[in-house]
Write a structure and sequence with these properties.
This protein is an alpha/beta fold and 220 residues long.
Length: 220
Protein backbone atom coordinates (compact mmCIF):
# COMPACT_ATOMS: atom_id res chain seq x y z
CA UNK A 1 0.00 0.00 0.00
CA UNK A 2 1.35 3.36 -1.05
CA UNK A 3 0.34 6.77 0.26
CA UNK A 4 0.14 10.21 -1.30
CA UNK A 5 -0.31 13.31 0.85
CA UNK A 6 -1.45 16.18 -1.33
CA UNK A 7 -1.53 19.96 -1.01
CA UNK A 8 1.66 20.63 0.92
CA UNK A 9 2.37 24.31 1.52
CA UNK A 10 5.56 24.26 3.60
CA UNK A 11 8.94 22.58 3.43
CA UNK A 12 8.79 21.41 7.05
CA UNK A 13 5.39 19.77 6.65
CA UNK A 14 6.39 18.09 3.39
CA UNK A 15 9.46 16.58 5.05
CA UNK A 16 7.31 15.56 8.03
CA UNK A 17 4.85 13.73 5.77
CA UNK A 18 7.66 11.96 3.92
CA UNK A 19 9.30 10.97 7.20
CA UNK A 20 5.96 9.62 8.45
CA UNK A 21 5.78 7.26 5.47
CA UNK A 22 4.20 9.16 2.56
CA UNK A 23 5.52 7.87 -0.77
CA UNK A 24 4.28 10.77 -2.87
CA UNK A 25 4.05 14.45 -1.92
CA UNK A 26 1.48 16.42 -3.91
CA UNK A 27 2.25 19.99 -4.96
CA UNK A 28 -0.84 21.92 -6.06
CA UNK A 29 -0.48 24.45 -8.89
CA UNK A 30 -4.21 25.13 -9.35
CA UNK A 31 -4.70 28.92 -8.95
CA UNK A 32 -8.15 28.53 -7.38
CA UNK A 33 -7.00 26.15 -4.64
CA UNK A 34 -6.24 27.28 -1.07
CA UNK A 35 -3.32 24.81 -1.26
CA UNK A 36 -1.78 26.39 -4.35
CA UNK A 37 1.97 27.10 -4.16
CA UNK A 38 4.36 28.99 -6.42
CA UNK A 39 7.38 27.60 -8.24
CA UNK A 40 9.88 28.96 -5.71
CA UNK A 41 8.28 27.11 -2.78
CA UNK A 42 7.77 24.02 -4.93
CA UNK A 43 11.48 23.92 -5.74
CA UNK A 44 12.36 24.26 -2.05
CA UNK A 45 10.04 21.39 -1.11
CA UNK A 46 11.39 19.13 -3.85
CA UNK A 47 14.98 19.82 -2.82
CA UNK A 48 14.21 18.96 0.81
CA UNK A 49 12.43 15.64 0.21
CA UNK A 50 14.25 12.44 1.20
CA UNK A 51 14.94 9.81 -1.49
CA UNK A 52 12.01 7.74 -0.22
CA UNK A 53 9.45 10.31 -1.43
CA UNK A 54 8.60 11.62 -4.89
CA UNK A 55 6.93 14.94 -5.69
CA UNK A 56 3.81 15.07 -7.86
CA UNK A 57 2.62 18.23 -9.60
CA UNK A 58 -1.17 18.75 -9.66
CA UNK A 59 -2.64 20.77 -12.52
CA UNK A 60 -6.22 21.63 -13.46
CA UNK A 61 -7.03 22.44 -17.11
CA UNK A 62 -3.67 24.02 -17.88
CA UNK A 63 -2.08 23.99 -21.36
CA UNK A 64 0.11 20.96 -21.82
CA UNK A 65 3.00 23.19 -22.92
CA UNK A 66 2.78 25.03 -19.60
CA UNK A 67 2.79 21.77 -17.66
CA UNK A 68 5.83 20.56 -19.60
CA UNK A 69 7.62 23.83 -18.88
CA UNK A 70 6.88 23.68 -15.13
CA UNK A 71 7.90 20.06 -14.79
CA UNK A 72 11.11 20.65 -16.72
CA UNK A 73 11.95 23.67 -14.55
CA UNK A 74 11.33 21.77 -11.31
CA UNK A 75 12.58 18.36 -12.38
CA UNK A 76 9.17 16.78 -11.69
CA UNK A 77 8.60 13.37 -13.23
CA UNK A 78 5.00 12.75 -12.11
CA UNK A 79 1.99 14.95 -12.91
CA UNK A 80 -1.65 14.70 -11.90
CA UNK A 81 -4.30 16.06 -14.27
CA UNK A 82 -7.36 16.93 -12.20
CA UNK A 83 -9.59 18.81 -14.64
CA UNK A 84 -11.30 18.11 -17.96
CA UNK A 85 -8.15 17.38 -19.94
CA UNK A 86 -9.00 15.26 -23.03
CA UNK A 87 -7.36 11.91 -23.66
CA UNK A 88 -5.50 13.44 -26.61
CA UNK A 89 -3.69 15.82 -24.23
CA UNK A 90 -1.84 12.94 -22.56
CA UNK A 91 0.08 12.38 -25.79
CA UNK A 92 1.73 15.78 -25.30
CA UNK A 93 3.32 14.78 -21.99
CA UNK A 94 5.99 12.41 -23.27
CA UNK A 95 8.56 11.39 -20.69
CA UNK A 96 6.26 12.08 -17.73
CA UNK A 97 4.30 9.71 -15.53
CA UNK A 98 0.68 10.87 -15.75
CA UNK A 99 -2.00 10.36 -13.11
CA UNK A 100 -5.43 11.12 -14.57
CA UNK A 101 -8.00 12.09 -11.94
CA UNK A 102 -11.74 11.57 -12.30
CA UNK A 103 -14.35 13.11 -10.01
CA UNK A 104 -17.10 10.55 -9.65
CA UNK A 105 -20.59 11.48 -8.50
CA UNK A 106 -22.56 8.69 -10.14
CA UNK A 107 -22.33 5.35 -11.89
CA UNK A 108 -22.67 7.21 -15.18
CA UNK A 109 -19.47 9.08 -14.35
CA UNK A 110 -17.74 5.70 -13.99
CA UNK A 111 -18.96 4.77 -17.48
CA UNK A 112 -17.61 8.05 -18.85
CA UNK A 113 -14.27 7.36 -17.17
CA UNK A 114 -14.14 3.91 -18.76
CA UNK A 115 -14.83 5.44 -22.17
CA UNK A 116 -12.03 7.98 -21.61
CA UNK A 117 -9.57 5.25 -20.67
CA UNK A 118 -10.54 3.21 -23.71
CA UNK A 119 -9.90 6.23 -25.92
CA UNK A 120 -6.51 6.79 -24.27
CA UNK A 121 -5.61 3.16 -24.98
CA UNK A 122 -6.57 3.62 -28.64
CA UNK A 123 -4.25 6.63 -28.79
CA UNK A 124 -1.40 4.59 -27.31
CA UNK A 125 -1.10 6.86 -24.29
CA UNK A 126 -3.09 5.52 -21.34
CA UNK A 127 -2.49 7.21 -17.98
CA UNK A 128 0.11 5.57 -15.78
CA UNK A 129 -2.33 5.64 -12.87
CA UNK A 130 -6.00 6.54 -12.39
CA UNK A 131 -7.17 8.57 -9.40
CA UNK A 132 -10.83 8.61 -8.37
CA UNK A 133 -12.14 11.46 -6.25
CA UNK A 134 -15.55 12.61 -5.04
CA UNK A 135 -17.50 15.05 -7.19
CA UNK A 136 -18.42 18.46 -5.80
CA UNK A 137 -19.85 21.10 -8.16
CA UNK A 138 -17.35 23.85 -8.89
CA UNK A 139 -14.52 22.29 -6.88
CA UNK A 140 -11.58 20.40 -8.35
CA UNK A 141 -10.78 18.43 -5.17
CA UNK A 142 -9.83 18.62 -1.52
CA UNK A 143 -13.49 18.82 -0.52
CA UNK A 144 -13.50 16.20 2.23
CA UNK A 145 -16.35 14.34 0.52
CA UNK A 146 -16.26 10.57 0.08
CA UNK A 147 -17.30 8.68 -3.04
CA UNK A 148 -20.66 6.95 -2.64
CA UNK A 149 -20.44 3.21 -1.96
CA UNK A 150 -22.51 2.27 -5.03
CA UNK A 151 -20.14 4.30 -7.22
CA UNK A 152 -17.11 2.58 -5.71
CA UNK A 153 -18.78 -0.78 -6.38
CA UNK A 154 -19.09 0.15 -10.07
CA UNK A 155 -15.36 0.76 -10.54
CA UNK A 156 -13.71 -1.51 -13.12
CA UNK A 157 -10.52 -3.39 -12.25
CA UNK A 158 -7.60 -0.99 -12.61
CA UNK A 159 -3.99 -2.03 -11.90
CA UNK A 160 -2.93 1.38 -10.56
CA UNK A 161 -6.02 2.79 -8.93
CA UNK A 162 -5.51 5.71 -6.54
CA UNK A 163 -8.38 6.26 -4.11
CA UNK A 164 -9.06 9.80 -2.91
CA UNK A 165 -12.06 11.70 -1.57
CA UNK A 166 -12.83 12.18 2.10
CA UNK A 167 -10.19 9.79 3.40
CA UNK A 168 -9.30 10.21 7.09
CA UNK A 169 -7.43 8.05 9.59
CA UNK A 170 -10.75 6.71 10.87
CA UNK A 171 -12.07 5.37 7.53
CA UNK A 172 -9.06 4.69 5.32
CA UNK A 173 -8.59 1.09 6.49
CA UNK A 174 -12.18 0.11 5.72
CA UNK A 175 -12.10 1.83 2.32
CA UNK A 176 -8.84 0.10 1.41
CA UNK A 177 -10.44 -3.24 2.27
CA UNK A 178 -13.49 -2.34 0.15
CA UNK A 179 -11.73 -0.97 -2.95
CA UNK A 180 -8.24 -2.52 -2.72
CA UNK A 181 -6.50 0.42 -4.44
CA UNK A 182 -2.84 0.61 -5.42
CA UNK A 183 -2.50 3.92 -3.54
CA UNK A 184 -4.53 6.22 -1.29
CA UNK A 185 -4.46 10.02 -1.53
CA UNK A 186 -5.26 12.37 1.34
CA UNK A 187 -5.34 16.15 1.73
CA UNK A 188 -8.01 17.69 3.97
CA UNK A 189 -8.33 14.50 6.03
CA UNK A 190 -4.99 15.13 7.76
CA UNK A 191 -5.21 18.92 8.04
CA UNK A 192 -5.74 21.40 10.85
CA UNK A 193 -6.53 24.07 8.20
CA UNK A 194 -6.41 24.08 4.39
CA UNK A 195 -2.83 23.32 3.41
CA UNK A 196 -1.61 22.80 6.99
CA UNK A 197 -0.91 19.17 7.77
CA UNK A 198 -1.32 17.92 11.34
CA UNK A 199 1.56 15.59 12.31
CA UNK A 200 -0.58 13.40 14.56
CA UNK A 201 -3.24 12.89 11.91
CA UNK A 202 -0.64 12.22 9.21
CA UNK A 203 0.99 9.56 11.41
CA UNK A 204 -2.39 8.00 12.24
CA UNK A 205 -3.37 7.94 8.57
CA UNK A 206 -0.15 6.24 7.51
CA UNK A 207 -0.48 3.62 10.26
CA UNK A 208 -4.09 2.86 9.34
CA UNK A 209 -3.35 2.60 5.62
CA UNK A 210 -0.18 0.54 5.82
CA UNK A 211 -1.75 -1.87 8.31
CA UNK A 212 -3.85 -3.30 5.45
CA UNK A 213 -1.34 -4.44 2.84
CA UNK A 214 2.37 -4.76 2.20
CA UNK A 215 3.85 -1.94 0.07
CA UNK A 216 3.69 -2.42 -3.70
CA UNK A 217 6.72 -1.12 -5.66
CA UNK A 218 6.26 1.69 -8.17
CA UNK A 219 8.03 1.23 -11.48
CA UNK A 220 8.73 4.66 -12.97
Amino acid sequence: MRIKVCGLTSVAEAVMCASAGADWIGLNFHPASPRRIDLVLAAEIIAALPPTAQAVGLFVDRPMAEIAQVTDHLGLRIVQLHGQEPAEALCELAGLQVVRAFRLGSREAVHQMTHYLRRAEELGRPPDAVLVDAFAPGQAGGTGRTIAADVLDALPPLPRLILAGGLVPENVGALIAHVRPWMVDVASGVESAPGRKDPARVAAFVRAAKARFEPVPFDP
